[in-house]
Design goal:
single chain, eight-stranded mixed beta sheet, globular, Tat (Twin-arginine translocation) pathway signal sequence domain protein, DUF1501, TAT_signal_bac_arc
């Protein structure tokens, strides 16, 4: 199997198409202790960050679409020009002049049960629950390689391998400025991954309290702290209390204080997950709210992430890959596979928005993007090769000051000669444009950082940028 085919189907054949799988494992991550920008990283967090704690801390669900998603589901503005110059034609129902055109009023890729979720995008924009930024476009370094772009976007910094991940940076800032509202060791699951090992939590030498290091949870709500899930000591008839007593008795004395505290914390987390975060309890809560997620791999994973955020205000940064949707590296057969994948994504996100609203959770923000965009020319394998421009979809968080929702931001134009593969969209001369690193800066801003440029040399998104909604 060709490498691109292997990467494309990782999500289908074995779970999440995560950074670790795409890049060959975490051994590729530099162990560098270098700084966030220049100088010492810990010093920057402690002494250079101008921090003002917000009245309400946000909760971020970070959905990363590994492989590089096409922008076209969220931006068919230029499709007439694209189709006129593409090496291979798009379907006739994607012609704006066609009587059966599936293009929505704001140029999303509609088509109902055969479309790419455009009608849901229209609905979420109209209700003020989502904004889409159509011009997340690299100017600083126009990389179109998976490795470089994944590292950079998940750290929010161009010097990616020497930089902590976005989640780790948030943990460090909040810890350094005593912003949790309680001691870090009293927090319950503050940083969580539903994609296993993730670069968004890369430490890169940044010191954070042990209690704020991320924990990987299972989308099926299996409790990682339950000893019966440990094949070495678990099994039928296990005496949990006896094991706990033995562990405590062997950790007596002041020199083992941290050990005893760790056992206590383990029990607290186990009890929380077992009582409040199990499949039966979550399903009962959702039934009471009238919420039903799609029974798909991605739907179940998003259900787990949103349920945790709703149930546990301590969970401040939750990472999700696009596992269950497959990879987004659509070099071939894109017209067959991409719409279904996008429709699954948008259907799940719509339910998540309804879930957050029904639960009264107006501080939860869901950000959805990938490492880069794609060309708009249909190549001879009926696919799109790597490009630059991509969308950011940001949902929820109506209670966070400064949130600009219900907007379509950015206008694009097609670039490239007719009949060649390298055709892509780019922001028009007068359009708003933002680096992907601005997404990290915006997250830092929501958590209270006033001068985000000291963390990644990038300003947050301009949420007052012109609204292009028709």
């Amino acid at each position: 199997m060709e490498r691109r085919q292997f990467l494309k189907h990782l999500g289908v054949l074995g779970g999440a198409c995560t950074a670790a799988s795409m890049l060959g494992g975490r051994n590729l991550i530099s162990p560098s202790m270098a700084a966030l920008n220049v100088g010492d990283a810990n010093n920057i967090v402690l002494n250079e960050v101008n921090y003002v704690r917000p009245a309400v801390l946000p909760q971020i669900i970070h959905v990363f679409l590994y492989g590089g998603p096409s922008e076209l589901a969220g931006n068919l503005t230029n499709i007439e020009d694209i189709n006129a110059n593409s090496q291979n034609p798009y379907p006739t129902n994607m012609d704006p002049a066609d009587s059966d055109s599936i293009i929505t009023p704001n140029n999303f890729w509609g088509g109902g049960d055969n479309g790419a979720g455009g009608e849901i995008m229209e609905s979420l924009i109209a209700s003020g629950d989502m904004s889409i930024y159509r011009t997340i476009n690299r100017l600083k370094e126009d990389s179109k390689t998976h490795r470089t772009s994944i590292f950079q976007n998940l750290t929010g910094h161009i010097d990616a391998e020497n930089t902590p991940g976005i989640g780790t940076t948030v943990a460090a800032v909040l810890s350094a400025h005593n912003a949790f509202g309680k001691a870090p060791e009293d927090m319950t699951l503050p940083f969580v991954s539903f994609e296993g090992d993730s670069l968004v939590f890369q430490p890169a030498g940044l010191d954070i309290p042990l209690a704020t290091k991320y924990i990987a949870l299972d989308q099926n709500f299996r409790n990682p702290y339950d000893r019966s899930n440990n094949s070495a000591i678990g099994g039928a008839g296990i005496n949990e209390d006896a094991i706990e007593a033995l562990a405590r008795n062997n950790a007596q004395g002041s020199k083992f204080l941290k050990v005893r505290e760790a056992f206590t914390k383990r029990m607290e987390l186990s009890e929380f997950i077992s009582s409040s975060f199990n499949a039966t309890r979550v399903d009962a809560d959702l039934l009471g709210l009238g919420i039903t997620y799609p029974d798909t791999n991605f739907g179940r994973r998003l259900k787990a992430a949103v349920s945790l955020a709703v149930k546990n205000p301590d969970s401040l940064f939750i990472s999700m890959g696009s596992g269950g949707l497959g990879g987004w590296d659509d070099h071939d057969s894109c017209l067959e596979e991409y719409p279904d994948r996008m429709r699954d994504l948008m259907t799940s996100l719509e339910v998540a928005v309804n879930h957050m609203s029904a639960a009264g959770s107006d501080n939860i923000i869901i950000n959805v993007y990938g490492e880069f965009g794609r060309n708009v020319n249909l190549n001879n394998s009926i696919g799109w090769d790597h490009g630059n421009n991509q969308n950011l979809m940001t949902l929820g968080g109506k209670g966070i000051p400064g949130r600009g929702l219900g907007k379509i931001v950015g206008t694009t134009q097609r670039i490239g000669s007719s009949g060649v593969n390298r055709q892509f969209t780019s922001p028009t001369e007068n359009s708003y444009q933002a680096e992907p690193f601005s997404i990290a800066s915006t997250v830092y801003k929501y958590f209270g950082v006033q001068n985000t440029e000291v963390l990644n040399d990038e300003q947050p998104l301009d949420e007052n940028a012109p609204n292009e909604v028709i």
